[in-house]
Specification:
It is built from 2 helices and 5 strands; from the N terminus they run H-E-E-E-H-E-E. It is of the alpha+beta class. It has a single domain, classed as Trna Endonuclease, Chain: A, domain 1. Strands 1-2-3-4-5 form a 5-stranded mixed β-sheet. Strand 3, helix 2 and strand 4 form a beta-alpha-beta unit. About 25% of the residues are buried.
Length: about 120
């Protein structure tokens, strides 16, 4: 596995643990629909939380969350629309970004709730 893939997988595992520690129920990991992959689908209270995890080893080229572009947002929305239909859900949906930077073996985490409202 390429180094960046390993870093991404470690970042996702760290994000799952962070969410669980903060009261989120993890429903799915790496949910795929057509050309899209949703990193984490979780639930907290009566809200379905869609989480895009971005992990980087440096912020030299920009913050991790800056790499979630309009095309990615469109793909995530399409995938979640399908998930909701597939599971026959009637639930509020929130899109979050968890941005991680790994420095000196430690992850620095930022959780952006309702992140797509800012695009």
């Amino acid at each position: 596995m390429a180094t960046h893939n390993e870093l991404g997988e470690k970042g996702e595992k760290f994000a799952v643990k962070y969410l669980q520690d903060n009261g989120y129920e993890i429903l799915e990991r790496n949910y795929r629909f057509l050309k899209s992959e949703v990193d984490i689908i979780a639930k907290k209270q009566d809200v379905l939380i869609v989480v895009e995890v971005k992990t980087r080893s440096t912020n030299y080229f920009g913050s991790p969350q800056d790499f979630v572009n309009p095309k990615k947002i469109k793909l995530l929305v399409t995938a979640i629309d399908n998930y909701i239909i597939e599971k026959d859900l009637d639930i509020e949906v929130q899109f979050d970004i968890i941005a991680l930077i790994k420095k000196r073996g430690e992850f620095k985490i930022e959780h952006f709730k309702n992140a797509f409202l800012h695009f």
